[in-house]
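#dry-run=false #mode=assembly
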Amino acid sequence: MPDFKISILGGTGGPFEHSTQCFMIRPVRKEDSLDSICIDGGVGLGSIARMLQYNPENRTVDDFYGDETAAGQPVEKYMDEKLLPNIVKGFPKTLHNRLNGNIAQKAMNIYQHIGEYYITHPHMDHIAGMIINSPVIFEPAVLSKKQILGLPFTIESMEKYIFNDIIWPQLSSNLLGRLELKSLLDQEVHISETIPEWDIVPFKVYHGSKVADKNIDVSSSVYIITNNITNNTILICGDLETDHTGPNERKLLDQVWTYLAENVKLENLKAIIIECSNSASVDERRLFGHLSSNKLLDELQTLRNKYNNPQGLSNLHVIISHVKMVYEDKDPRLIILEELRTLGNKRSGLENITFSVAVQGYTFII
Amino acid sequence: MPDFKISILGGTGGPFEHSTQCFMIRPVRKEDSLDSICIDGGVGLGSIARMLQYNPENRTVDDFYGDETAAGQPVEKYMDEKLLPNIVKGFPKTLHNRLNGNIAQKAMNIYQHIGEYYITHPHMDHIAGMIINSPVIFEPAVLSKKQILGLPFTIESMEKYIFNDIIWPQLSSNLLGRLELKSLLDQEVHISETIPEWDIVPFKVYHGSKVADKNIDVSSSVYIITNNITNNTILICGDLETDHTGPNERKLLDQVWTYLAENVKLENLKAIIIECSNSASVDERRLFGHLSSNKLLDELQTLRNKYNNPQGLSNLHVIISHVKMVYEDKDPRLIILEELRTLGNKRSGLENITFSVAVQGYTFII
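#status=ok
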């Protein structure tokens, strides 16, 4: 039985500002509740409202790369066929059934029940929507309280550079009492207050270096979410790159793979949502803190070796996000998906991974 | 003859993140050029791409407040009938005709030719899209250079809090040489480098106070753009409120009205795009640095008095932006528009103002 409903409010790496990363997650076992958490907040309420307007039968993908008279690409192009039965256009019917009013009111009602935002890193494309939506916590008909959580480098940056009464009103003030910024501890289990059956463990990872000083690392996070009753687990990543290799550098992403292999049975690992910003054709020096399809396969190879399962990572669902929508004739997400499938097929133990794209506007039920 | 093509990439005051303020302006007299400037950058490339997909005949307004099976409200509800002949759904045909490739490529081509962003103030909903779009300046097929301009409080905040290698990579670095942050002088004429026939004058205005200390003012800007050949002029505002009245407070918005009355003939004042975030029903203590419909009418009355024209502000086009899309049964923009028309009709000299809404996805040719 599936455990997680993951709605892709946004899933690209820009530069289009309306589809940046935000994943809204609800538990399958609580059909009678709207409660959710989000991983990142690049977009939000605007995306929710558009999803509420979808015709669920129209299983196409908004895409700016096709024939402009076409109404979008069929979703089958973006999903592994094994995962197709697990996706819904927009939100599941059970959620629609619990909402009243017009689209704006319904969207605000869904927003009201987002209890926690887990932010991977404080880059604009992962926080902008969440910030712009935030005044809705004071909207009388849909009052709410929210936590914004992350590793200390994220939370301290949000306090200093965002909720500082200059870039945004200091709505996180204790005096207002509705928006709490809260630091998590690296690699320590945090129990979600919104969904208490979820254990959430953050891991710090590398995400390139500063423009102004190439010797200073930029950090990001990944989150491992485990249902503490069923042990079913998903891994959700923000931006990241492979581990740095200097003599004083720590292994970071490697620790994530070790943790999974040591703590999560392969059959409980329901999906990995991970960035793959670039095509394999992008020069290594131009990845700027991101993965490419070949680098992602290297990481999956590491995970495969740590599990050391005779069948390899058989039937693991890998869902890629944060593809950079570059100037191309063809949708870059389809280029990268093809690369992952072709190159993955040649790697021992990765042949039976399913690769799909975290397409904006769809819900994965896994 | 009209002078300005103003495309509303976004025109609300949130909380929906996909429609925040950005106005792209091109000169009517340069049909053979894509060159444009933007006032604010709440949204950008994503909005441009969607506008390129529009069917120009489908003159409806995306709206989350109507019947959810309806395809949007007719645009006539949002525009004064005198302005209707001057609006186009999406972009004018002359722009479409100059573009090649798929929608993504066309959108990046338009983006390439945005030479300058004039930012009214550094709040997230006025800058987020511009920041998230910014890596496209390095896209090989559509390389570009851009300036981000504003009064010192805006530019210094962007340097310190946004392009700081923490919230966003420091793409404004001189080493990269493509994105220049540039401070303007208050009330001094600045000649646009992108459109040299435009003189642009920024004015500092009030925009509430800090949450953490009610005694510290928050600032915003308005821009007066004048074609220095025809003298035709538009006033474009960001967020603002009426002047503060304390003994040590300066008159700010009042200086804007004085400047217009002293420097721009009423027949050359082609339009005022101004925020009207709130309905007249909102308590004065809950305006939080914004106008309401009655406050806006007070300001127009001041302008009317300064012009002291026997016909009042006859045929002046006032286009309202930044309406807060609150939890309501009816589109708040229509509520406020109705208030402005009803209350305006009762004020001497304001009866013949035309009131319209800066609806996302439309171009005003004025």
